[in-house]
Amino acid sequence: MNLPPAGMRFAAAKVPEITVWFWVAKLLTTGMGETTWDWAAVALGPVPAILLSALGFVVAMALQLRERAYRAWVYWFAVLMVSVFGTTCADAVHVVLGVPYAVSTVVFLLAVVAAFGVWYRAEGTLSMHSIDTRRRELFYWSAVILTFALGTALGDLTATTLGIGYAGSIVIFGMLFVLPFVAGWWTAANAVATFWIAYVMTRPFGASVADWVGVPASRGGAGIGTGVVSLVALVAIVAVVVGLEIGGGRPVTSVSSS
User: Fold this and answer.
1) What's the DSSP call for residue 160?
2) Which comes out higher in pLDDT, residue 58 or 217?
């Protein structure tokens, strides 16, 4: 692995420790991102919703990049805004430009593969624990944005285009989310690879759950309402992040060789 000069490095990785609460918060943000965009697109209109999500994304990333160390609320605010903006990008490509989900899914998949390829070629690692320089942080967030867009398009592809529905998508992506953990426990599978596979799957899994709870019964959901789901998810995210800020989710201070 190529280690950067000491003067270019942060004191610690600018990402949280990977615990069960990391995955809980990640799933909550994916669900909220999906329903927030759905609600905003209807309540405000697609164009204002796109502009607001882009503004929120820019503000969140500016706050995150300004920090010299991991801070729970800043990091998770960035993840939440990436979730909303990633959903916006994927849905706007379909709704505004008319690109089929099958096409956008393939395009976003190729973009994710390319992003990881460039990142690995430049840094020699894709490990979460190595996000300790500005360049690696930019690689990281670029990949995260693309994984959110890919997951959104993939979830909509199965739920709508393929006719599997939200409930069926929950089962499919729930299994695909758990599979990397099983592989990591029972095999010698690469830890970095299993992490990123699970990370990508959180998006369609969490979004499918949120959609199923929020959308009307005519669309195969429980009909609670996307606004309500977003609000409940926000409260849950705040509770988890407060817990992480107080005592958990500390950044890793050593660089992994993975």
Assistant:
1) I
2) 58
The encoded tokens of residue 182 equal 């099983």
**pLDDT of 103-141, one tens digit each?**
989 999 999 999 999 999 999 999 888 888 889 999 999
pTM of the model: 0.86
CA–CA distance, 248 with 20 (Å, rounded to integer) = 11
Distance in angstroms between the alpha carbons of the first and the last residue of the chain: 8
Token code pair at residue 209: 């759950």
User: How many CB atoms lie under 10 A from the CB of residue 183?
Assistant: 16
At 46 the pLDDT is 81
Name the helix (H) or strand (E) containing 152: helix 134-156
> Are 57 and 63 a contacting pair, CB within 8 Å?
no
User: Which residues contact residue 106 at a Cβ distance below 8 angstroms, ignoring those fewer than 6 apart?
Assistant: none
One-letter identity of residue 85: F
The pLDDT value given to residue 250? 54
Which among 197, 51, 172, 193 is positioned nearest to 127, based on CA atoms? 193
Q: Are 63 and 78 in contact (CB under 8 A)?
A: yes
Q: How far is residue 258 from each of residues 69, 162, 234, measured CA to CA in Å?
A: 21, 37, 34
pLDDT digits (tens, 9 = 90+) for 185-224: 898 888 899 999 999 999 899 989 999 998 888 888 888 9
In angstroms, the CA 67 to CA 191 distance is 27
Closest CA to 27 of 76, 70, 72: 76
Name the β-bridge partners of 9: 133
